[in-house]
Structure formats: C-alpha cells, structure tokens
Amino acid sequence: MKTHAQAVVIGGGVIGCSILYHLTKLGWSDVVLLERDELTSGSTWHAAANIHGLHDSANISRLQHYTMTLYNSLEEETGQSCGVFQPGSLYLAQTENREHQLRLQAAKARLYGMNFHEITRDEAERLHPLVNFDGIRCIMWEPDGGNVDPSGVTNAYAAGARQKGAEINRFTPVTGTEQQPDGTWIVRTPKGDIRTRWVINAGGLWGREVAALAGIKVPLQPTEHQYFVTETIAEIAAMDRRLPSVADRDGEYYLRQEGKGLLIGAYEQDMKFWAEEGTPLDFAHELFADDLDRIMENVMRAMDRVPLAAEAGVKRVINGPMIWSPDSNVILGPVPELKNYFMCGGIIPGFSQSAGMGLMVAQWITTGEMEYDMFAWDIARFGLWANDKAFVKAKVQDQYAHRFAIHYPNEERSAGRPLRTRPVYARQKELGAVFGLNYGWEHSLWYADTPGTVDTNGFTRQNWWGPVGEECKMLRERAGIIDISNFAKYRVKGPGAEDWLNAVFANRMPGAVGRSCLTPLIGVRGGIAGDATVTRLAEDEFWVISSGMAERYHKRFFDVVPLPDGTTFESLTEAVCGFNVAGPKSREMLQGLTNASLATQDFAFMRSQRITLGGVACVALRVSFTGDLGWELHCAMEDQAQLYDALLEAGKEVGAGSVGSRALMSMRIEKGYGSWSREYSPEYWPQEVGLAGLCKMDKDFLNKAAAQEVLARDPRETLVLLHLDEADVSASNADATGGEPIMKDGKGVGRVTSGSYGYSVGMSLALGYVKGAAPGDGVEVMVLGRPHRARILHEPPFDPSGARLRA
C-alpha cells in the first residue's frame, strides 16, 4: 500500500469510486481509495439504481444528464459492464401542479438540449401497455431513462481509475485522520499510514463516523427504505422488449421492470430511522427484516396504476439503509473550518448523480472551483447550527415522507423549526409575520392580517401575493421597516485592515471615514463569488455586509489571505441585528428618534455614521436594497427589541409598518438589483452582471489573474430585466420565479434567475441571463412551461435615475 498520495478517498461505494475515477480523468494518478469492506458495501449494493435526467435545478439536471450519458462510454472504456437498461421513463401528472412542474421541466430540457417531451395517451399506452392511464392529466417521455447495475457501475469506475494509476485497497478501514502543521493529512489504517494533501470523505453510511475522526460533525441521519420485486408476470415475459419505468410521483412510489417482473418502491409516511447513535462498524451487506405493511398504502396505488402487479407474488424484498441530509441534497465541498478536507455524503439519487458528483468533486480539488454553481449541494449552506440532532431528525423525516412531493417556488417547510430566533421574533409573530428559514434563522417573509396564517403553496400566485403588494405600496408611498438581521456582518479592525480588504475584494476600499463602497468578491475561475458593502467606520475599522446564507461559504475566501499583524477579522452576524427603514417618509420618521441630522447635506447616499436612535446605539448606513430613500440600522442583538418598538411607534406618525422579505424581493427587482446565489454566482463573469467597473485592475486582489482573463473576453451572456406581458400573466395567474427558460424566435436564449410582480410599477418582472437578445427585443418566458410574451427593458422601471435613492 502507498505511503504518500495526492488524495485519499475514504469509501468504496459508487460515489467514492466515481470521485477516484474523475480525479484520474483530470490528471491526478497518484490517488488512493480505502474501503473498510468490499466495494459497494453499505447502501450501494442494494440500490434500485434508477436513472433520470431532469431535476428542478438546471445545474443538477446538467449533472444527471452527464451521468446518464457517461455509463455507456464507461463500459467501452473499461470493459466492465454497467448493466445499463434505457427503455425510457414515463412521467405522469395527476394534478395541475404536477403538470406545471413537468411542463416547466420539459421547457428546461428544450433549452439545455435534453430529451424530455410530452406524449399522448395513445403513445404512452403503446410504450407501456400494462399501465392504466386513467386520471392522468399530462404524460412526459424521457427516452434515456432507465436503470443500471449498482455493482457493475461501481466496479467500472474502479476499473477506470485503476487503468489510470489509482490504487484501491479493500478491507482497509480508516482508524484515524490527523492534520499536520503543514496542512497535509495522515490517514491511519491497520495496514499502514498514508500522508496526503487531500482527504475525501465518501463514507456513505459511515460518513458521520469518518468525519468524527477529523473532529467534525455533519448533519446526516440514516433511515430504512424498502422496495420489492415481483415474481414473473406472464405478459412481461412474453414481450420482446423492456418496458419503460413509471414515475407517478403523485402516487408516491416508483416502478420499473426487473427481470420478467416489476420492481416497486415507496417513500412512506410512516418512515423509520436507523442507527441514530452511529452506524455499526460491522455492518456491510446486511438487510433489515421485511416490513411491507409500512409501505402498503403506496403499493396499492402502484397496483391501481399497473393492475397486473396485484396478481404477482413477491419474489424478494429489499429493506436496506440510506443516509439523508436535512434537505435531501448531498453535503459536498471542502469543510470550511479545516484545510483540504472534502466532504461528500448524504446522497439519495446516487446512480442518477454519481458521475456528475464525481466530476464536480474532482474539479474542485484539482482546480479550486467547480464549473457550475452548486451551492444547493455545498456543505456551507448549513452552518454548525444544523448539527442539532432534533433538527436533523425532523428534517430528514419530512424529506423522506415527502420525497416525491413538489418543491414549490417560495415554499417554506415547517419541520424542525424554529431553530434559531432573534429577540423580535415573538413581537413579529404577534403582528402577523409569516416566517421563512434562512441559514437556520427565522425571518419574516410577509405580514398577514391574522396572526398564525401560513403560506399556501403552488406555481401560481398564492395567499401572500396581495398582502405583499400592500407592504410594497406602504413603503413606496410612505415608509417600511424591514428586518435585515440575516445579512452577514463582519468587522475588520487594526492597522492592516485596509490592506487586507484590498487584497481580498476587487474594488478599492473607501479612503475616508464614513464612506462605503460596493465590491465584488472574485472566484477562482474569475466569476462573482460574492458581493459586499464595505464601510469605513474609523481609520482602522471597517464593516463588511454581505449575504447571510453565504457566510460559511465566504469563509473559504477570507481564509486564503493571511491577516496582517495586529489586525482582526470578526463575524458579527449573531451579535448584531438590523433593520432597513426605507421610503419617501423614512427621513421624517427617523429624524424624530435621533439628534443626528439625517438631511442630505449631512448624511448623503453611501455614507455611514454611528448614531443613537430611539436610545439605541446604531451603525447607520445610507443604503437601501429597496432602491428607495433609506437607511440600514445595525444594533447589538440585545437592543433589537427596543429599537424595533421605537421604529414601530415612530412609524405610526407617517403610516409606516413592518415589511417582509418578499416585498423586498419585489422592490429590488423593480430596480434591477442582483442578489447572491441568484444573479451573482461563480458561474457569471463581472462584465456579464454589470460589475466589471467595480473590479479595480490597478491593484492586487484575490483571484485577480482569473478576473483579468475573463474580462479580456466578450461576455457569453448578459443580465437583463424583462417585462412580461400582462395579458399572458393574468391568464396564468403566475409570475416568473426563477429557472424559467427564455426563448426568442423559437430558440432558447437564456433563463430567468429571479422573478416577481413589481407592485409599485404595475409590471410582472424577471431578471435573467440572455445571449443573442438586447434591450427592446421581444422574447418569451416559459412560465409554468408555457410561453409568456416579454420585452427586455432598457432601464429599471422604478426610479431609473436613482433620484429617490439619493434624495
């Protein structure tokens, strides 16, 4: 066994072997995989191994498409059969909302060149004559859908990796992972130790235990999961072809051919946890006792859909473990608190995502960044707060029981909440706040007339649409109070603070006390890894305000540049809360609470001061994400309730009140403002998002060389603001929300990143990226998967000159 390697992969399931294979494919041949038992032990060997290409996330769809298309070439490359069956998949919609979801996915497939389209009932019956299609509103066809052999795929990845120089050691459990002072790791095993630069935890069911060896926790929890295979069905045995699989997700089961019978599996409401205190180390290829009664409701729905299944006996039952994250997405990426420790765990659709996941891991490790924005998979989307055991169990239970439920735009699930609240939570609740979850925190989305109201969910306008409009109207006509405590806040203090910030961010830091600037943070490939407002509060003190959900993600960038001697970096996100008070009467409303002059000549746009407001010490910034006259007011968490009460009382004098984040979303889109993880991500170049002017190329900053390289190129696409035709929007009763394809002359030219109704301008609006289209052009936005006429605007419809913002 090797004693040194570029990377050590721990875990010999399909994901670990895919990572190993893709590392070698990208040129790293000095790599090792360690497996405690045999390859495929744990969850891999008993997986149903279905494969499908489409996902609600466009980037995950891309990676699933890559995975499906790789399997055949992997067979050719390695000589190892992957057991690929691709008779196609039928996707059924029993409800209007499922129809909306499938039509939107079909529109995305058209944009990205994937094969997924609607067919008639007659066509579906020819493809699968055993299915009863009664009650089905819409049928989609994916010709490349099917399944693979779990063992074959895993061993094909392993063979391909070995051919390129990788070493695989079976029956080699890892007993320790110890980081050395130089940042390398020693991986300890009974067969000897390996020194490596990178440790990759692909431990699957043992991901928690492997992580614990490095002193970290990850929010994962295994469950039981069952499917069964029927005896031979004569009608299937008589066929000269393989039947397509059936995705009837409204029925909450999955169904496909297996041998000459059927395989039926379910995600039942009465789910069952396993190994809550840790996965047994002697577990390998075991299964649990059959418990078909637990999934019988789902099975009966499957048998109603394929009546012949009810006549067949059960040949075998598979009841095995799988391990989940709180949102059922993989937990992937370098652990921000460690150096060169990569986590990849909690994978559910492993055989649909294995190649894409392996490629992303290999890209990140070998180049420092993935080609796609995969924050939906990034371990950094969860803070350390997510390791709360009750939270993880509640979320996993909810995800398992609703595995096939539709994830609606703006949907907020209540399981495991509240987890983290701020002092004004109860007061906001009394005022009718409907809450969402942001990086573990409860935050107000909108305010209902009746406290205790909850969101309704769907693709069309929901119960919050009207009240959000009233909040926007209040703020635009008078003033509004928005809780912005979710923003990430950092303090950089000391003699080297300015130099450090200039070395991290692309813009030049403000030179005068009381000045602020907007600045991009550049990614490894030259894209927009983040954006921030930086304020100089003193000669040696700066505040940085950025996206709260990205705090752990951005830690990776901040940690790259060493702090100068005597300079400190401190997160204030938990210690400091804040409100944005905005609107034409916001100055009048606030002036009565402070002795500081808020007049324009004394407190201009993009300026800051320390002031006392309502008896509370605040850092006040003259900025507003609403695009209106306003101030951000940041105070100590213990003073938040006092400040809120003072603002509410002062607001009565001008007819102002609380405004939620959905209204803020509407107003920032009216101004064409981008938002991190929507319009801003490492995928997009500065000139594509309109931030090139904030990259000061006459100074050094993090990843400047990458920025220079991309800025020398023409933009691949451009961020634009679109106005959707009112007649089309009214007919569908739906606005764009994000992800909808943009078409021009029948061809895909882009996709929506954010959408909302602009209440104060009376327009349904969307931000998105396009190529081959320009301001003034007519296009079509595929809202609900159907074309809605739209026009690209020349300028934002609200206050395009910024006069109100600077008033």
Number of domains: 4
**What profile does the largest beta sheet have?**
8 strands, mixed
Mean pLDDT: 97
**What is the β-strand count?**
37
Q: What's the CATH architecture name of the largest domain? A: 3-Layer(bba) Sandwich
Helix content: 25-40%
Q: How would you name the CATH homologous superfamily of the largest domain? A: FAD/NAD(P)-binding domain
Count of helical segments? 20
Q: How would you classify the helix and strand content by structural class?
A: alpha+beta
Quick overview:
The chain is α+β, with helices and mostly antiparallel strands and 807 residues long. Helix 2 packs across helix 9 (350-367).
Task: Describe, in plain words, how this protein is organized in 3D.
GO terms for molecular function: oxidoreductase activity. Residues 425-699 form the GCVT N-terminal domain. Keywords: Oxidoreductase. Belongs to the GcvT family. Residues 7-364 form the FAD dependent oxidoreductase domain. The model has no long low-confidence stretch (mean pLDDT 97). Strands 1, 2, 8, 9, 10, 11, 17 and 18 form an 8-stranded mixed β-sheet that branches. 53% of the residues are buried. By secondary structure, the protein is α+β, with helices and mostly antiparallel strands. It folds into 4 domains: 4-324, 3-Layer(bba) Sandwich (FAD/NAD(P)-binding domain); 411-486 and 575-675, 2-Layer Sandwich (Gyrase A, domain 2); 488-572 and 685-713, Alpha-Beta Plaits (2-Layer Sandwich), CATH 3.30.70.1400; 717-806, Aminomethyltransferase beta-barrel domains (Elongation Factor Tu (Ef-tu), domain 3), CATH 2.40.30. Helix content is 26%, strand content 27%. The chain is built from 20 helices and 37 strands. α12 packs across α17 (661-670).
